[in-house]
Specification:
alpha/beta; three-stranded parallel β-sheet
């Protein structure tokens, strides 16, 4: 998601350019249908000798395309080798140890977790381009983008109908991230958030979304919230697994998204839906939703902790306090403000 502002900027600056994006299958939905791309190449997800075979075939395809400029937005061993294999006259990437020789031009990227937004980091590659005129990144002009898949839109519309949800309801998506302890807001906090938001307005329908590793946690939160709500339990919904394209379509129909610093947060940023972002070990300065500042967007974090940000390998205090000490009432208040900004803050 954080690379998509570059695509818009490149096409705006060089309208006759032909842009190709190379992506792995898991993230392909993000760039499929992007209006600034002429081609999306999905790299096979293979292993062992098949991966070597597939990478050689892909390298030949990329070299045959005769690209003028190639940006390595990933910086890993595979992407840097493929960048080199294109043979492009201008190959731009980060000065990662042992891989700088793959590029004709490198950009220094400090190892320290500096409070610089990831889009700005990516933009430094763009500014290293020989013909780049010098535009600076601007979220109002170049926000993150993800096109709506019409078939996914139809599937989501059917799921909403099946759940009895229609235009009368205020749909709120709460994304549970529980698989990684460094991104894990406590389940009890999620339960408090869901029950409070659902309990305050009969029009509200809270849809709990999650990744595959977080499915059981989201199920537990939904069940606990329904138990607490009693006769109002129908206000909490679980759609099961939905893919990225379906999530994008669902968010277009929602009045609020609440979630941590994960992919779904930044998919939400591609919509006009109000957002409340929960930050733990990462800084909002680095990962806040990159979109028009006029849209309702609020980041919630504990700013005074000396251990933030961290590299998410070891929790120095041992109690994940950047999330465990973030009170549900703080997130609830932010959510109500966001709903109020959208004209949907009334209570029962």
């Amino acid at each position: 998601m954080f690379t998509t502002p570059m695509l818009r900027a490149l096409k705006r600056t060089f309208p006759d350019a032909r842009l190709t994006y190379v992506v792995e299958p898991e993230a392909a939905a993000v760039v499929r249908g992007n209006p600034h791309l002429e081609d999306v190449i999905v790299v096979p997800h293979s292993r062992g000798w098949r991966r070597v075979r597939d990478d050689v075939a892909l390298a030949r395809r990329l070299r045959a395309a005769r690209f003028d400029v190639v940006f390595d937005l990933h910086g890993g061993p595979r992407s840097s080798w493929l960048t080199w294999a294109t043979g492009a006259r201008e190959r731009i990437g980060y000065d990662v140890a042992g891989r700088g020789w793959h590029y004709t031009r490198t950009v220094h990227r400090p190892r320290a977790l500096r409070p610089l937004h990831s889009v700005v980091n990516q933009w430094e590659l763009l500014q290293a381009m020989e013909r780049w005129p010098g535009d600076s990144p601007d979220p109002a002009r170049d926000p993150v983008e993800m096109a709506v898949d019409r078939s996914a839109e139809q599937r989501i519309a059917q799921r909403l109908r099946d759940s009895g949800t229609d235009d009368r309801h205020v749909v709120i998506v709460v994304h549970v991230s529980a698989g990684n302890p460094f991104r894990r807001w406590p389940e009890a906090s999620f339960e408090r958030l869901v029950t409070t938001l659902a309990g305050r307005d009969e029009r509200r329908r809270i849809i709990l979304s999650s990744g595959p590793s977080d499915r059981t946690a989201a199920d537990r939160i939904a069940e606990a919230a329904r138990t607490s709500l009693g006769a109002r339990s129908h206000r909490v919904l679980r759609f099961g697994d939905i893919d990225l394209a379906e999530l994008r379509a669902l968010l277009d129909r929602s009045r609020l998204f609440v979630g941590g610093d994960t992919g779904p947060l930044h998919i939400a940023a591609a919509t006009r839906t109000p957002i409340v972002a929960i930050f733990g070990p990462t800084l909002s300065a680095r990962s806040a939703p990159w979109r028009d500042p006029a849209l309702a967007t609020e980041s919630v974090e504990i700013e005074e902790l000396a251990c933030r940000p961290c590299d998410q390998s070891v929790c120095a205090p041992g109690d994940f306090r950047c999330l465990t000490r973030l009170e549900p009432e703080t997130v609830i208040a932010a959510a109500e403000r966001a709903l109020g900004a959208d004209g949907n803050g009334s209570n029962d």
